[in-house]
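Dear colleague,

Thank you for sharing your sequence with our group. We've completed the structure prediction you requested, and as agreed, I am returning the results in plain text so they can be pasted directly into your records. Please verify that the sequence below matches your submission; if there's any discrepancy, let me know and we will rerun it promptly.
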Amino acid sequence: MSKDYSSRSTVIIAMVVVVALAYIVRLAHLQLFSDEYERSADRNAQHVKTIYPERGILYDRNGEVMVYNSVYYDLMVTTREMKNLDTLSFCRHLGINVEDFDKRMKEIRNRRINPGYSSYTPQVFMPQLSMEACAPLQEHLFNYPGFSLQKRSLRSYSRPVAAHALGYVGEVNRRDLENDAYYAVGDYSGRSGIERMYEEKLRGEKGKEFYLRDVHGRIKGRFANGNKDVPPVPGKDLTLSLDADLQAYAESLMQNKRGAVVAIEPSSGEILCYVSAPTYDPSLLVGNGSSEHYRALSDSPYKVFLNRPIQSFYPPGSTFKTLQALVLLQEGIITPQTKYACHQGYSFAGMKLGCHSHESPMALAPSIATSCNAYFAAAYRAMVDDEKYGSSQASMQVWRNHVSSFGYGEKLGVDIAYEQSGFIPDENFYDKLYGKRGWKGATIISNSIGQGEILATPMQIANLCAIIANRGWYYTPHMVKAIEGESLDPRFTTPHRVSVDSVHFQPIVDGMRAAVTESFGTSRGVAVPGIEVCGKTGTAQNAGVDHSIFMCFAPKENPQIALLVFIENGGFGATWAVPMASLLLEQYLKGDIAPNRKWMETRLLNANLMEVEPEQK
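Please find the predicted structure tokens below.
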């Protein structure tokens, strides 16, 4: 018995010794080799203040500042430090009532609304206060423990233009916090447009300042004399391709209208003008009243936040005839000399696709100039039903592949957030709709004139015009011309060649020029003295009033601008879109509007099409 007892005692003693040695080793490690306790002590004795960097400045293509930074303040509260607060006095200095104060404090402490809440860390009590709004409070702030002002740089605008292109900056949400460790609760990031697409370039890197605090949490001075501080790194400046003067002029002409204006420099793919109408003053979404302004704009029946150049898609109408002609030429269905008769329309299967009165028959270039429906209906049907393809499905696949090479039916890849793809039907679509043996060229004849199931964004139509101007190639349209200290993404500097040979573009260009110069042309109203303009009208059918469309480029040789004007519910293309394009071309290429053309400008400035029945989707 005594031997067993002695053995157990030895084991217990050994265990105690091992545990003691483990503690000794651990303590020695912590004291001699580890800085864990030092760091923990530092955390308890330090207050870390985030220093926000200056966001990158945005310039237009001519060096004019479009977006810069102004000083605002976030009023912060650390709830644990709030002691003996004179709430009534505090509210009076801030210009709010006690009920509003209580509501804000309740929301701050509600972890469902504010998942990053901690009583130890500063929380945003009131964001984006201007210097003027802060002035009554600032000199009395020491009387209100727990409250502090955090300097913040927010956006300001030199002109109230290009809201949809530039985008806006707003507070990050839970998804942002989960996806990017850069952000903390209360931070801001680009929410749309260029601000969103180039967020990582524009935002810069945060800095940190370290302060000492006593056992009561009060700030006592800089930690390590500021030697541990990390300075912020400002964001990169961007030079945009927009021409601010052209942008402002286009927005003035689009006042009281719905639609889009897109202008592209064909030789570079740079977007010169980008209008979504109706628009808004981007400064409304900055400052303490931004939430109320956002709600008011969101509630507009005219879909103010809809970014029409890249998010709306419509039947492209007769502008699509130029692309049809290119596909038909490439496939050998027609030649520039091919003629089709038009008897005020195209009759088929007991039905008739109407057309206006003009000379008949016509070859390709005149048919583009006069926008003959019968010509393109007959030629398109001939391709879909051509036996050389073996079936309608096969010919449709060939047709769609050509159309897709021009950027239709897919996202172009522009550097503006939330681009949509539009829609180009294929053989599978019609097989499901009609059955594999249930359709032929006559069934889908509306496609021939840019109607039917075809849908395109204004940006895609503008890019088509740039492709024609270039005779068969394009750069992906883009808004940023240069990034400070960096090169552009190669996708904006790599040319794309379409599937149609360049030799086939000249008849299309000739037809678009004849549309402006010939008596039977549909685009005569776009003519600008001294400039060779090539254009194509379009009238997209709609359940309400038709949409007015016009695309053009100028000059004919070495073109400097390709332009698309799309006015929702504007009627015939020649009524509103053509004269607007004429003024925009003159403004951009000549710098001013001639006195004898001011009447046209006045007519457009005074036109109010907002009361016309809104689009039917």
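Summary note from our side: Confidence is low (pLDDT under 50) at residues 36-41.

Kind regards,
the structure core
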